[in-house]
Amino acid sequence: MGSSDPVLSLLKDFSYNVVRLPRANIRPLQLFEKQDNDLVFLGEIPKLFKAGANAPLPAIGDDEQAAFINGQRSRDLNLSVGLSILSGIIGALGGGTLGLNVGYKKASTLSFVFDDVKVNQIDRLDLSRFLNNATVDEAVGPPAKLVDADKIYVVTSTIKSKKFTTEAKKSDGTSVGVDVPVIQNAMSGKVAVKTEGSSQSTVTYEGNIPLIFGFQAIRLIFENGRFVEGKPVGPTDAGMKAVGEGEEPEMLTTDSPFTPVYIEPDV
Fold first, then answer.
1. What is the mean pLDDT of residues 125-150?
2. Helices in 57-96 by DSSP H: which ranges?
C-alpha cells in the first residue's frame, strides 16, 4: 500500500501505526526497543518495572468497536501486492495459501475492507501514575539500561479484526469473479471463506483469532531513574497533531508506511 491509500491515511489521522503483517500477539503494555527503524519486542511491562504503592499496573480495556475504520476500504492494489498482504493475513489466521494465485488468476487488482474492527487500550493517565511510582528492576540486566537511554516504547492501544474482505477487479476497474472452491480448499477448513453477490468478486475471510493490524505507542522518557513523560509516537510516514504548543510528535520513520515489528510467535 502506498502513502495515498485511504485506509493508511485514515489510520494516520487517528495516530495509528500500521503493522505490515497483521498478527495476534501484539497487545497494550508490551515493551519494545527501537533498533534503527525496527521495533523489537522486549517483554511485558511488569517484567521491567516494579509497581509502587497505590499505583497498580493499568488495566487493558475490553474490546470496543473501532467505528472510525469499520467498513473502510483500501485503494485497489496491484494483484501481486494484494496477494502478498492477503497471504500474510490468511497465514496468521491459520489457513493455507496454496491456490490463492489460481483462485485470483482473472484479477488484476485487490482491495481490502476492514470488518468488525475492535480496539483495546489502556488509560494513559493510569499508565503515567504507574510509571511515576514504579522502580526499574535492575535484575533484568542490559534492558534496564535502555530506560535511561530513552529507547523503551510501550504499546498503549491496538486495533484488531478476525474478518477481512477482498474485492477483485480487472485492469479496467470492473469486478471479476474468483475461483472460490479453489480458495476454500487452500484454507483446509481453518478459515471460513464467504462470498457476496452472484459475481463472487467479493470474498470474506474469517478466522477464530483477531489479528492486530494497527497500534499506538509512546516512548518513555526518564531522567535520573525517574519517569518524566511519555512521548507519543506518530504514524510511520506522517506526523500527527502536535501534543503541545509548538511541540512535534516523534515519528517511527521507515522507508514505507508500515512498521516492522519483531516479536516471537508464541508471546
1. 88
2. 79-93
* pLDDT beyond 90 at 70: no
DSSP, res 137: -
Asked if 168 and 103 count as a contact pair (C-beta separation under 8 A), the reply is no
Give the contacts of 55 (CB within 8 A, at least 6 positions apart): 129, 130, 132, 133, 134
Provide the residue ranges of all domains of the chain, joining segments of one domain with +: 19-223
Give the pairing type, strands 250-251 and 226-234.
Answer: parallel
- The DSSP result for 138-207, as a single string, is GGG-HHHHHHHTT-EEEEEEEEEEEEEEEEEE-TTS-B----HHHHHHHHTTSSEEEEESSS--EEEEEE
Length of the chain in terms of residues written:
267
The pLDDT value recorded for residue 202 is: 93
pTM, entire model = 0.76
